[in-house]
Design a protein that fits this description.
The protein has 307 residues and is α/β, with parallel strands linked by helices. It has a domain at 235-301. It is built from 6 helices and 13 strands. The protein has helices at residues 2-52, 159-168, 217-226, 229-261, 269-277, 285-301, and strands at residues 64-81, 88-97, 100-101, 108-110, 115-116, 120-134, 138-147, 152-155, 173-175, 183-186, 197-200, 205-208, 211-214. The strands form 2 sheets. Strands 1, 2, 3, 4, 5, 6 and 7 form a 7-stranded mixed β-sheet that branches. Helix 4 (229-261) runs antiparallel to helix 5 and helix 5 (269-277) runs antiparallel to helix 6 (285-301). The longest helix is centred in the first third of the chain and has 51 residues, at 2-52. The model has no long low-confidence stretch (mean pLDDT 85).
Length: 307
């Protein structure tokens, strides 16, 4: 009697353990499947964002704005890599699911895009606009990414910037009438520490997160305002890599024109190539810009313009 009782108990115990193990495997497999599906979907979203950015490569002087709407709360992670000929723009996305953020290590990379933003931008709606960067020839279009959850208030801006912001008509960028929750971008030097971002337009400096970023031209000024200092410095180095390669191409074009037509443009493009290649940070940008301005002026009056 006791022996049978023990046999029955062991059978039930075995069935219980086997059932628990099967349930565990089912839950684990389901969780792994869901996680994998989330990673695939997040990677697909990242690629789609890259494709959506293509129309913003305007080729025009004026800025252009649009928005991206996500079906749920989404995080866009901006990463930058300087290795290789042009470096890489890296982005990944994660969405909020059951109160938690999906995790993914999958990054989508682009060699020809330059996105300036905070390291992580979060929301359901995102605004993006772009401006071309000339140095002295067109290097690329710069893309500025912000969330609708954050509103930027520009104070005491120069007339040119004020007019551009008005024409841009982007919902999360306003002028002067700032609220307490706005991210305040101040162009005046006497703000008494009440601003989140300070722009010295004459000295071409942006101060953000207690760090200094140097800029040349409005396209880089916006880049410094809307991005983290680390993203800004990395993307600037990538832009200089592209400048370096374009300088070599234009130098070859100048040599070909001189050989076939006998027209010498006399542009010091190799010096630009070397300076762009050796740029260590935005603090050295002004020294590169000096030769950029010289090349720009000489190309304007040249009989055989290269661009």
């Amino acid at each position: 009697m006791e022996k049978g009782y023990l046999q029955i108990s062991f059978a039930w115990l075995f069935a219980f353990l086997a059932g628990a193990f099967i349930i565990f495997l089912a839950i684990y497999a389901s969780k792994a499947f869901i996680q994998n599906s989330d990673e695939v979907q997040d990677t697909k979203t990242s690629k789609e964002i890259g494709i959506l950015l293509n129309p913003l490569e305007t080729g025009f002087e004026t800025g252009k704005t649009t928005s991206i709407n996500m079906p749920s709360e989404t995080r866009i992670q901006n990463r930058c890599d300087i290795f290789g000929t042009f470096g890489k723009q890296l982005i990944s996305t994660s969405k909020k699911s059951f109160g938690k953020w999906t995790k993914t290590d999958r990054l989508v990379d682009f060699e020809n895009k330059y996105i300036f933003s905070e390291d992580i931008v979060e929301g359901e709606k995102f605004y993006i606009f772009s401006k071309p960067f000339y140095f002295p020839f067109k290097v690329s279009d710069l893309i500025y990414l912000t969330s609708s959850k954050e509103r930027y208030c520009f104070k005491d801006t120069p007339d040119r910037i004020e007019n551009e912001i008005k024409s841009l008509n982007q919902k999360n960028i306003i002028l002067n009438n700032c609220s307490e929750t706005d991210i305040k971008v101040c162009f005046s030097l006497n703000i008494n520490g009440k601003c989140d971002i300070n722009v010295d337009y004459n000295s071409k400096i942006v101060k953000k997160n207690n760090k200094i970023m140097h800029f040349e031209y409005d396209s880089l000024m916006y880049a410094a305002v809307f991005s983290s200092p680390e993203i800004y410095e990395c993307q600037l180095k990538r832009l200089m890599k592209r400048t370096e390669q374009l300088a070599l191409i234009y130098n070859d074009k100048a040599a070909l024109i001189s050989y076939k037509v006998g027209c010498n443009s006399n542009l010091n493009l190799l010096a630009l190539k070397n300076l762009a290649n050796n740029l260590e940070s935005s603090a050295n940008l002004n020294s590169v810009n000096l030769i950029v301005e010289d090349i720009q002026e000489k190309n304007k009056v040249a009989n055989c313009k290269l661009w």
